[in-house]
Amino acid sequence: MAEISELQEEIYTNVFKFPTMSLEDKRYHIEILERLVDKQQVLYTRLSLSDDPEAKKMKENIIQSAGTMGLPTNVDMSILFNQMGQMVNTMKQQLDNEELTS
Questions:
Q1: pTM value?
Q2: Planar angle of CA 10, 4, 72, nearest 5 degrees
Q3: pLDDT digit string (tens) for 88-99?
Q4: For residues 44 and 78, what is the distance between their CA atoms, to the nearest angstrom?
């Protein structure tokens, strides 16, 4: 959880700087984003498999947080994480294309 929080903080701190970053900094930012999504997905999966009341509560908090960000509460979080991973891959491909044209 602590590492997820640190990664989130780093992403949020630099998200608005992304368009003006160097290609190297963009690549690093995308790598951090990819690590964050992977760790969030693993955490959510572990919480989903647990019978522990605290784990169930944390899972519900994640679902509620997603709802406050505008996602429907009935969204399958596994699908959401897969889509986020695809988005990160698209960002990597766009960066690769940007490097080729530079």
A1: 0.85
A2: 100
A3: 999 999 999 988
A4: 8
